[in-house]
Amino acid sequence: MTRAVQETRPLTEAQEGLWYFQALDPANPILNTGQYLELTGAVDLAALREAVARTIIESEALHLRFRTGSTGPEQWLQPGALSLSEVDLTAHPEAAAEALRQMQADTARPTDLAAEPVAAFTLFLLPDRVFLYERIHHLATDGYGIVLVSNRIGEHYGHLTGQGPEPLPFPPLSRADDEDAVYRNSPRRVGDAAWWREAMAGAPVVTSPGTLAGERAVSGHEFHRESLWLPEALTARLAAFSDQHGFGWPDVLTALTGACLARWSGVDGAGGEAVIGMPFMARMGRKIARLPCMAMNVLPHRVSPDEEAPLSDWLGHEVRRMREARKHGLYRSEQLRRDLGLIGGARRLYGPLVNVQPFDRAPVFSGLECRLHILGAGAVEDLTFTFRGDPVAGILFETDSNPGLYSAEETRNHGLRLMAFIEGALAAERLRDVPSASPDEIAAQDARALASRHPVPDVTLVDLIEAQMRETPEAPALRFGAVGLSYAELDAQTEALAVQLRARGAGPEQIVAVAMERSLELSVALVAILRTGAAWLPLDPDHPPERLARILAMAKPVLVMTSAAIAPLLPAEAPLFQPADWPADWPAQWHSLHPAPPLARPSGHSASGQRCMGQPRISFGNPI
Amino acid sequence: MTVTLEKMRADIARLIDLDPDEIGNDDHLPDLGLDSLRLMRLVTAWEAEGLKLDFAVFAESATLGEWWEAVSRLQAAG
Q: Who is most buried in A190, A525, A607, B44, counting CB within 10 A?
């Protein structure tokens, strides 16, 4: 097919956010969404090649190009440059691995959106099957668009092999522009904006299992992935439970995932509320419903579970809230971020994504077995939990994570934990009865607790310290830079200081706060406090003075041991006690008398004080 | 072919917890709570009753009136 190069058009609202992400980091390949179909059986290669060729021709979005124009980003159609490639691996000893390597390398290569096609299709011929690889940039189509393209290849194949009707051609891509223009200028958009502002009023600062409030989460070039199939018993239970209560099972999965994530919030005043991102197809009832294009949106959904309520009551409430949100789901989340002033990687609208894709099943190829393998599905800012398929066909559960925030092991554990949570919730009366840890984690914790059981002498920590001081009086106990103390000196100094502390009220059941720099004095102070029988409360001088004052007001220490440098950060009325008030011979005496202790390592003592110069460590002898 | 306009209206209503008379021919069905998954269930049920119309054709329109137009066209042709 030959067509003239079309005139340029501005991007749709749905494309703009992706464009700016890509423009900020042109070398980032993460928006290349890649997948492959594994076809086994008697593949009619001629029909398959023709099916792909026909699909390429009728899918206008695959011919899009993008660039920065004089008035902003723009796109145009450039048909004719995209065709199916073929790699013959029939004689390769490790054909599948080699095909996978080549597909991954292709998906990992950034696309030059102005100069080359946004998509690639490659047929890998293996000795016993074929892989049909598809890679499409997210700006051209969203996940559902790729489903439509893959299904279309299968439909053409069915028709070409005489086993199905000729598929109804895709509508023109101009429908995406038309729908975009209609919504941009509609009163509906104004109403949606107001609805979302109200829905997000008072939302907590976004956190997630891997990020604290205000921490950046921007997709890198790669992601971790942990895939597993939900057990059949679980999907059957999910379907039965959802049917019983009249809920859509995707909503049940989304809400329960939100409840699990809410368990990870609740710090820094978030109050157990999670804000998850819900990918929304944004196609229902629109002229783009069966058009490969980029339309999807991500809706922020606030989840603060009622852990005490009957589970079906709480889920019913969530299902209604999600249904309401979808009615306003055409309003772009990028625009909402601007409305709410949430700009930049550290100020987020939502944390982890919960992506339920009921339609993302393997396409049908008449007479063949077809399995779908997803290589990448777009940016991974934080965590993305994806559920593909349905309870009848099976649900593939993928946990993707940003490697800058999560290790591979953490990613795997989050996936397993969530699966156990969903399993537990579907059998529970209410959320409160569902453990946060997975069964494996609980078993491992029990095993650790069992393994660490051993007889413990009935003594105090101070008894052990004093015994060690008596046993090796000459050995180095403490070292800070060039100066240090032997155990005998530590004994004398801490006992003298303890006498003073007791005189000022320190003793059992009392608290002595400590706000001091790392120093010899700090370690001497801690041992002295222990010897009085009091507990010590460490204060971090880097915290804001208001926070320090709040902690002191709550803890009511009998004394606050501090230094001349830190004292001004503390409330004036606090019972401050500085080294200047310590026993008279402190600290000048040992500073001059003991320039450096011997470095020999006494038996039974930790060598850590010698390795970590500049950081005081106390060698207490045997572990306690 | 047993699918009628009123049967379609009743089936939709049952799936989104409304009375059939609450669904007008021009009402925006997604706004009434019809999502793609529920639509899929409807289309599958109608298909079992002999209506061979692609899911995507229903998804392209937001009102029962438009659906019925497409269904009538197909029934007249078929």
A: A525
pLDDT of residue A270: 42
A278-316 confidence digits (pLDDT tens): 999 999 899 999 999 999 999 999 999 998 999 999 999
- Domain B5-77 classified CATH 3.40.50.620? no
Residues 225-264 of chain A whose Cβ lies under 8 A from any Cβ of chain B: 246, 248-250
In this prediction, residue A358 has a pLDDT band, given cuts at 50, 70 and 90, of confident
Task: Tell me the backbone φ, ψ of residue A375, rounded to 5 degrees.
Answer: -95, -35
Residues A429-442 have a mean pLDDT of 88
Residue of A22, A20, A17 whose CA lies nearest to A32: A22
In-domain check, residue A108: yes
Give the gap in angstroms from C-alpha B42 to the nearest C-alpha of chain A. Answer: 13
Task: Report yes or no: B63 and B25 within 8 Å, Cβ to Cβ.
Answer: yes
Q: Check whether residue A468 and residue A428 sit in a common domain.
A: no
A294, A232: one domain: yes
- At residue B77, the pLDDT reads 76
Phi, psi of A117 (to 5 degrees): -60, 150
Q: Which of A7-16, A441-450, A586-595 has the lowest mean pLDDT?
A: A586-595
Residue A427 to residue B9: CA distance in whole angstroms: 35
Domain shared by A228 and A169, yes or no? no
User: Closest to B36 (Cβ–Cβ): which among A246, A281, A327?
Assistant: A281
Reported ipTM: the value is 0.86
Dihedral (CA of A95, A96, A97, A102) sign: positive
Residues A360-397 pLDDT 10s: 888 999 999 999 998 887 888 899 999 999 998 899 99
CB contact under 8 A, B30 and A359: no
**Residue A450 falls inside a structural domain:** no
Each residue of A549-594: pLDDT tens digit? 888 988 899 999 998 889 999 998 999 998 888 876 655 444 433 4
Instruction: Give the residue-averaged pLDDT of A262-290.
Output: 82
The CATH number of whichever domain residue A563 belongs to comes to: 3.40.50.980
Block residue for tokens 């103390």:
A485
Does A358 sit within 8 Å of B59, measured CB to CB? no
Task: Count structural domains, chain A.
Answer: 3
Last-in-domain residue among A121, A140, A174: A174
Q: Residue A477 is part of which domain span? A: 461-598+606-611
Cα A137 to chain centroid distance, Å, stands at 23
Residues of B contacting chain A (CB within 8 angstroms): 17, 28-31, 33-40, 54, 56-57, 59-63
Asked if A165 has any chain B CB less than 8 Å from its own CB, the reply is no
Rounded Cα–Cα distance for residues A527 and A466 (Å): 10
Contact B60 A286 (CB under 8 A): yes
Note whether A323 contacts B54, CB cutoff 8 Å: no
Domain boundary among A409, A442, A475: A442
Spans of all domains in chain B = 5-77
In a domain, A447, yes or no: no
User: Which segments within A244-352 are labelled E, that is strand?
Assistant: 274-280, 297-303
Per-residue confidence (pLDDT) for residue A586, from 0 to 100: 57
Residues A284 and A381 in one domain: yes
Pick the residue of B26, B36, B63 with the most A CBs within 10 A to test the interface with A by mutation: B36
Burial of B63 (0-12, 13-18, 19+ CB in 10 A): middle
